[in-house]
Design the sequence.
């Protein structure tokens, strides 16, 4: 992660507030303009991190009051306090604690359906989830229901064999709904406790493909319907998430490619717009590059603050 | 295809409302900047655009919503850089295709191959992604469908060696375009960027600069991070042009504006779907219209 953003926001805010206090001779009578400056800095930091503008507006309005309260302005370092409050609020919005998967007990078969835009990381994530569940003692079966992308089935079969997890695939199949159903049937019959279904990438604006994923969803009644989204997504993240959520009712989101240097504001946009938990983040291409989503860490990253917040906490 | 680009000749909602606010009010500029940012345009560039407008309105230039619209349009339009990367003559040429994971490198290669085959050229692939599961198979499926040759050594092979082989072969035959695939890699992983530089050195040792093009693929749904991607890869290799893939996502493509403006790298093509025909030269008009329609809501 780049640290430049860190100090920039932090310095700007500190300057805003210390100028303010110099002018006021330490007496807290803050003008509208001073507060507005600080809020403007926060807004800019969030936008630079790709948080959706509408989400930023809502956030700023809701935070303004608390973050400019008397106790902040009277404190030794109002700039730092201000940032901390903003940070804590983001953590709260992202979901105060990490959320895991909601699967049934190992004596029945649970279904995980993965979906999302093209290239977002579904197939890789399917194998990462399988590896993780296997390590936890479960018995997963991967289902290759992407019949569109060239060599998509080969890709899943290869990944499955790397982690020694079985893959259900059907040569020459044309209908993903059938493959998903057959995969689930086989999963139940052969006593796999989790069936993870990989689907082809689709644009949220493609009506036919959205209808198709709805049919898959209705056919397998998933316990977890997870949208895999790229952590580097920009302003458009909210439209994408809304479309998928309206079509299939998501149970959560996995954000891939967090090993890039994106600030990852998409996390905040997705969570605020859909209300769905972000369950994991992908941090690389290998099968164990999947981590639980830790709101604290992502909030600091969105604000570009690195460890500043923990320093403030100690101060 | 571009149904949502229906040209709006008349200024839409926001421009009218902006004009009513009056080009001198603060609210005016703030609303304009917000709309630009919502199209994924970098905040500092959004401010640059509104500053230009501020200066010109002071000169009393804008007297109607129509004028305001065409002014904004012109400012944006001047910022977008484009380039034609279709091969110009019948000499040998190599195109190295690179970018972060999953943006559409391999698929874009297949589309370019189709485009150049249709123009009567001989095209082949080098399977330089020897890392990702079934990446070689994916490219081989495309080669089979297109009926073209693919140079491959399988999973785990040295990508430079694969591409070198392909180069030797097209040179020996004296005609043809080689499209070389590379594994997706994050720009912030220096080891992986170094590997690209090694491939680049190998290619340069075999061919003259004019017949060697480096194409970066960027996903249109990407946010501000796209600027970093372009910056790092450009520094490492020198990028001749960018493919803006997945433009059918209806993301507004403000990223293209930010990259052109801040880095001076031109855009060559846009990808608009998964089919072979779904690529076209970057159309700055279409991009400007899509940003304008984002602004106007
Ligand atoms: N660096 C990094 N790469 C990732 C991550 N997750 C997936 N990838 C890579 O992103 C690319 C696309 O991943 P896939 O799993 O094929 O994506 P997909 O959503 O299945 O793609 P389609 O099936 O074509 O829609 C591959 O190169 C993966 O190795 C991640 O967390 N970090
Ligand atoms: N809708 C749409 N999908 C696209 C476009 N370009 C590529 N894709 C899809 O995006 C997914 C990823 O494309 P690839 O060509 O495999 O991407 P890549 O950059 O080679 O991926 P890695 O090699 O894994 O890094 C595939 O499902 C493609 O069909 C486009 O312009 N529009
Ligand atoms: Mg896939
Ligand atoms: Mg590829």
Sequence:
């Amino acid at each position: 992660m780049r640290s430049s953003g860190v100090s920039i926001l932090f310095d700007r805010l500190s300057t805003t507030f210390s100028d303010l206090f110099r002018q006021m001779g330490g007496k807290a009578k803050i003008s509208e303009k001073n507060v507005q400056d600080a809020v403007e800095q926060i807004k800019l930091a969030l936008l630079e991190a790709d948080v959706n503008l509408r989400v930023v507006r809502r956030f700023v309005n809701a935070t303004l009051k608390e973050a400019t309260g008397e106790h902040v302005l009277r404190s030794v370092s109002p700039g730092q306090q201000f940032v901390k409050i903003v940070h804590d609020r983001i953590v709260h919005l992202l979901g105060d604690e990490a959320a895991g998967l909601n699967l049934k007990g190992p004596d029945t078969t649970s279904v995980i359906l993965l979906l999302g835009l093209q290239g977002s990381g579904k197939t890789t994530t399917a194998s990462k989830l399988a590896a993780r569940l296997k390590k936890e003692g479960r018995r997963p079966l991967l289902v290759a229901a992407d019949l569109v992308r060239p060599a998509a089935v080969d890709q899943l079969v290869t990944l499955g064999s790397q982690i020694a997890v079985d893959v259900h695939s059907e040569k020459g199949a044309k209908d993903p709904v059938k493959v998903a159903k057959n995969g689930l049937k086989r999963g139940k019959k052969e006593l796999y406790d989790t069936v993870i279904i990989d689907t082809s990438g689709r644009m949220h604006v493609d009506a036919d493909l959205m209808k198709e994923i709805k049919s898959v969803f209705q056919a397998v009644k998933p316990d977890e319907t997870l949208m895999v989204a790229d952590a580097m997504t920009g302003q458009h993240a909210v439209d994408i998430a809304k479309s998928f959520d309206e079509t299939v009712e998501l149970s959560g989101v996995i954000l891939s490619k967090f090993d890039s240097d994106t600030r990852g504001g998409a996390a905040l946009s997705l969570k605020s717009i859909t209300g769905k938990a972000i369950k994991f983040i992908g941090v690389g291409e290998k099968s164990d590059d999947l981590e639980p989503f830790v709101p604290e860490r992502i909030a600091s990253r969105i604000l570009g603050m690195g460890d500043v917040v923990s320093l403030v906490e100690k101060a | 295809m571009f149904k949502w680009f229906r040209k709006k000749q008349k200024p839409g909602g926001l421009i009218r409302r902006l004009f009513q606010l009056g080009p001198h009010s603060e609210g005016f500029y703030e609303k304009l900047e917000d709309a630009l940012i919502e199209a994924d345009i970098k905040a500092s560039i959004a401010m640059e655009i509104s500053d230009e407008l501020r200066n010109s309105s002071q000169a009393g230039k804008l007297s109607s919503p129509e004028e305001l619209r065409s002014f904004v349009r012109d400012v944006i339009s001047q910022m977008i850089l484009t380039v034609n990367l279709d091969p110009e003559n019948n000499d040998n040429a190599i195109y190295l295709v690179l970018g972060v994971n999953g943006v559409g490198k391999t698929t874009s290669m297949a589309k370019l191959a189709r485009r150049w085959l249709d123009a009567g050229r001989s095209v082949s692939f080098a399977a330089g992604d020897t890392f990702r599961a079934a990446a070689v198979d994916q490219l081989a499926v495309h080669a089979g469908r297109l009926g073209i040759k693919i140079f491959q050594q399988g999973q785990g092979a040295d990508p430079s060696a694969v591409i070198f082989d392909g180069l030797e072969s097209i040179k020996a035959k004296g005609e043809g375009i080689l499209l070389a695939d590379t594994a997706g890699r994050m720009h912030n992983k220096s080891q992986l960027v170094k590997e690209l530089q090694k491939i680049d050195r190998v290619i340069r040792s075999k061919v003259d600069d004019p017949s060697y093009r480096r194409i970066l693929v960027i996903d249109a749904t990407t946010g501000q991070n796209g600027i970093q991607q372009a910056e790092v890869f450009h520094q490492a290799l020198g990028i001749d042009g960018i493919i803006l893939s997945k433009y059918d996502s209806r993301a507004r493509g403000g990223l293209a504006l930010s990259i052109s403006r801040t880095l001076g790298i031109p855009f060559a093509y846009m990808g608009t779907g998964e089919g072979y025909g779904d690529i076209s030269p970057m159309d700055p008009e279409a991009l400007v219209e899509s940003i304008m329609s984002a602004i106007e809501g």
Remarks:
- The interface with chain A takes residues 34, 37-40, 43, 100-104, 131-134, 137-138, 140-142, 145, 186-189, 219, 221-226, 228, 246, 248-252, 254-255, 274 of chain B (CB under 8 Å).
- The domain at 92-281 of chain B is CATH 3.40.50.300 (Rossmann fold).
